[in-house]
Amino acid sequence: MKKFVASLFFVCFILLLAACGGTESTSDDGAGEPADTEEPAENGEDTTTESESETSFPEQNITLIVPFDAGGGTDATARALASAAEKHLGVSVGVVNRTGGGGAVGMSEGANAAPDGYTVTMVTVELATLPHLGLAPITYENFAGIGQMNFDPAAVTVPADAPYDTLEEFIEYAKENPGLQMGNSGTGSIWHLAGASIEQATGTEFNHVPYDGAAPAVTALLGGHIDVVPVSPAEVLTHVEAGTLKTLAVMSNERSPAMPDVPTFAELGIDAVAVGPWRGLTVPKDTPPEVIEVLTEAFSKGAQEEEFIEFMDNNGLGIVILDGPEFEAMMQESHDFYGELIPELGLNE
User: Fold this and answer.
1) Neighbours of 211 (CB within 10 A)
2) 289-305: per-residue pLDDT in tens?
3) Alpha-carbon distance 194 to 275, whole Å?
4) Segment Disordered: which positions (predicted)?
5) Per residue in 157-171, is it b (16+ CB within 10 Å) or e — as a string?
């Protein structure tokens, strides 16, 4: 009995000590929650570590993949934007051209790159068309958007000495001479779709000649190897101004600021689908959100730099800026649109 009483007294003593110790370690707000065991920072300084509040990205140079040849509108846009964004990133942005497959080679490489933000890809409208043509397994779903920077209409352009000066005359000539050579930037490319849309709307028939990009197609036009190209104003503007080429019309509802005197298909009463390229930046889909945020902010600021705006204006390239989520939504809409158009044109057979 004496042992039991002694044991009971000892237990009560231990519990009393524990209660006293707990009172000293609780916060003084009366809530009864344990107080922070870390000593408070002096002068109220934030003790959050760098990894908790911000990313150290980027710590090395960034590669920007362009899926078409150097010299075309996509390449020019990418290089101008890379230059404008470098000061906002604090590292160099090196542009590399990965051509082939109407853009599929370069975009596939970008989609399969390490999702660390150090490989950025300039994707184009072909990302929305190639899957429906069975020419590429990737879609917008393989990427996370950084932002859209550009949109341009198709400009139907011919040699300056061609025997037609208006779109109406060209269509009449094409009907009388079926099989005119129409260059494009690759089978299933946006310029191929533009040409097919013209055929559908006007009852004409062309022989479509694919090239690895618009620049080689324009070169072929200048050399007399083909008869016409439907490419962006930027890709023919200098030649039009030099008097070696002439643009008959643009495939849009509004005139191009780069060619304000050139009529639109809509003005001429031709019900052609208004197709044209868009361009934007992406990274692989599993790239960390904080890295995407850094890239989005830097390239968005770059797109608003005077040097970039002046370059785009001087070269006839249209500026359209959408942030990452907006660009992803636009890519999905474009994917769905061409998913309907391509079967209608019979290009997926």
Assistant:
1) 23
2) 999 999 999 999 999 99
3) 6
4) 25-60
5) bbbeebebeebeebb
Closest CA to 65 of 54, 51, 55, 75: 75
* Ramachandran angles phi, psi of 170, nearest 5°: -65, -45
How many CB atoms lie under 10 A from the CB of residue 318? Answer: 24
Please say if the pLDDT value at position 240 is more than 50: yes
**Position of tokens 């204006």?**
313
Instruction: Name the residue among 255, 273, 250, 243 with its Cα closest to residue 347.
Output: 273
What is the biggest distance separating any 2 CA atoms in the chain, rounded to whole angstroms? 123
Residue 156's beta-bridge partner residues?
230, 249
Is residue 62 classed as helix, strand or coil in its secondary structure?
strand
Which H/E stretch holds residue 167? helix 167-176
Q: pLDDT per residue over 167-181, tens digit each?
A: 999 999 999 999 999
pLDDT in tens, 18-41: 444 433 333 333 333 333 434 444
Tell me how far apart the alpha carbons of residues 192 and 129 are, in angstroms, rounded to a whole number.
Answer: 11
In this predicted model, which residue has the larger pLDDT, 214 or 38?
Answer: 214
What distance lies between CA 64 and its chain's CA centroid? 11
Tokens of 163: 């025997």
Query: Which of helix, strand or coil describes residue 1?
Result: coil
- Nearest CA-CA partner of 150 in 318, 332, 6: 318
| Per-residue pLDDT, 195 | 93
Q: Give per-residue pLDDT as tens, 194-209.
A: 998 899 889 999 999 9
- List Cβ neighbours of 255 (8 Å cut-off, separation of 6 or more): 262, 263, 264
Domains of the chain: 56-152+277-345 (3.40.190.150), 154-251 (3.40.190.10)
Q: In the beta sheet, which residues pair with residue 124?
A: 279
CB 271 within 8 A of CB 254: no
CA atoms of 234 and 342, how far apart (whole Å): 25
